[in-house]
Design a protein that fits this description.
Strand order of the largest sheet: 2-7-1-8-9
CATH architecture: 3-Layer(aba) Sandwich
Number of domains: 1
Number of strands: 9
Shape: globular
Structural class: alpha/beta
Length: about 220
């Protein structure tokens, strides 16, 4: 009888399973048109204690009532924002409705180095920029159940002038056409925020189980 058949691997056989035991930290981008609920979704994830580093975006737009500096955004002057650009301190930046927004490189690098998954909210334009710079970033597109629902949410916010609202609705419609550029899509239905968060967490869990892990390099 051939004893070799079914025998144990030879001594010294290198079966590298370590890469499956400790998944690399992910860089997660939650994006989608204005009005789909990106901020509300991330805030709910924070309330639930999701174990991520939530990136705080820098902006030179005016602080709105109820917003907290360092929590909702880092609010800086246009001059300060320009200086950060000059020093190449931003991973991504964009002009969104005549306002500058950007992601600090140092904040992302420090969180990844600590082993934490990093999650950030970006507009569709910003998500495309991050994908170009970090090809292995995980991009999730958040959307409403219908275009009518999206338009209604934008109207109900009452944060823009009539002309500004028209421009925001037109931009949102164009951004919806770019859904195919993302890895996953999650529908944030009215009154179903928990379901949206559960789907996002399921996506992240599945990514942690991949045999070929995403490698984030900045």
């Amino acid at each position: 009888m051939d004893e070799k058949q079914g025998s144990e691997p030879k001594e010294g056989y290198d079966l590298d399973v370590s890469r499956f035991l400790e998944p690399s930290p992910l860089l997660i981008v939650l994006s989608g048109p204005s009005g789909v609920g990106k901020d509300v979704t991330l805030n709910h994830m924070k309330e639930l204690g999701c174990p991520f580093h939530f990136v705080v975006t820098i902006t030179d737009r005016p602080q709105r009532p109820g917003e907290v500096h360092g929590v909702d955004y880092y609010f800086v002057s246009s001059e300060e924002f320009a200086a950060m650009l000059e020093r190449d301190e931003l991973l991504e930046h964009a002009v969104v409705y005549d306002q500058n927004k950007g992601i600090p490189k140092s904040q992302v690098r420090e969180a990844l180095a600590s082993g934490k998954d990093v999650i950030m909210r970006l507009d569709v334009q910003g998500a495309a920029t991050v994908r170009r710079i970090v090809p292995d970033a995980l991009l999730i597109f958040l959307r409403t159940a219908s275009e009518e629902e999206l338009v209604r949410r934008l109207r109900e916010r009452k944060t823009e002038s009539p002309e500004g609202l028209k421009r925001r609705i037109a931009t949102a419609r164009e951004e919806m056409k770019r859904l195919s550029e993302f890895d996953y899509v999650v529908v944030n239905r009215d009154g179903k925020l928990d379901e949206a968060v559960e789907q996002i967490m399921a996506i992240i869990t599945a990514e942690k189980c991949r045999t070929k892990q995403r490698r984030i390099e900045l």
